[in-house]
């Protein structure tokens, strides 16, 4: 599966970033009961954190790109945790998407599609997942989007 994912990333013109180190007292991934629980991942594009508020200076399209960047970081964290073997991913179970939003912004689900569509592109049917998409007034470091995940491992 790792080769297929690498080919799909190349086809999409995307690359996995280096898995980010934690910036506080937590670990990026916890495995429990055959599930990986991933801490919230922030959007880095070209090594820079995407910051700002949707509906107040950050466009829907930029928000979707930020969500996609979070999705790429999720895959990078999983790949690192699994020693490079993404074939152990059985299912993307759930994404929790937090969108730094102006009070009048209501397109959080459209922003979240940036990550959701990436997961389906990379993992096929196993990438189809449950999801939450919530607007929040602020995120760590001023990030535009933060996404956490639950991923099922193959037996």
UniProtKB/TrEMBL annotation:
Ranges in coiled-coil conformation: none
Pfam families named among the record's database cross-references: YjgF_endoribonc
Highest taxon of the lineage: Bacteria
InterPro entries tied to this protein: Endoribo_LPSP/chorism_mut-like (IPR013813), RutC-like_sf (IPR035959)
Gene3D superfamilies for this protein: RutC-like
UniProt domain Endoribonuclease L-PSP/chorismate mutase-like: residue ranges: 11-143
Protein name as catalogued: Enamine deaminase RidA (YjgF/YER057c/UK114 family)
Source organism of the structure: Sphingomonas jinjuensis
Organism ancestry: Bacteria, Pseudomonadati, Pseudomonadota, Alphaproteobacteria, Sphingomonadales
């Amino acid at each position: 599966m790792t080769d297929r994912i690498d080919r799909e990333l190349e086809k999409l013109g995307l690359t996995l970033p280096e898995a980010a180190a934690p910036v506080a007292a937590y670990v990026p991934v916890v495995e429990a009961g055959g599930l990986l629980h991933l801490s919230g991942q922030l959007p880095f594009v070209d090594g820079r954190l995407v910051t700002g508020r949707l509906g107040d200076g950050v466009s829907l399209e930029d928000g979707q790109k930020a969500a996609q960047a979070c999705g790429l970081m999720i895959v990078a964290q999983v790949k690192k945790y699994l020693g490079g073997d993404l074939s152990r991913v059985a299912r993307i179970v759930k994404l929790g998407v937090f969108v730094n939003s102006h009070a009048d912004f209501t397109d959080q689900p459209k922003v979240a599609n940036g990550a959701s569509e990436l997961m389906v592109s990379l993992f096929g049917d196993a990438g189809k997942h449950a999801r939450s998409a919530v607007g929040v007034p602020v995120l760590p470091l001023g990030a535009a989007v933060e996404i956490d995940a639950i991923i099922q491992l193959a037996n």
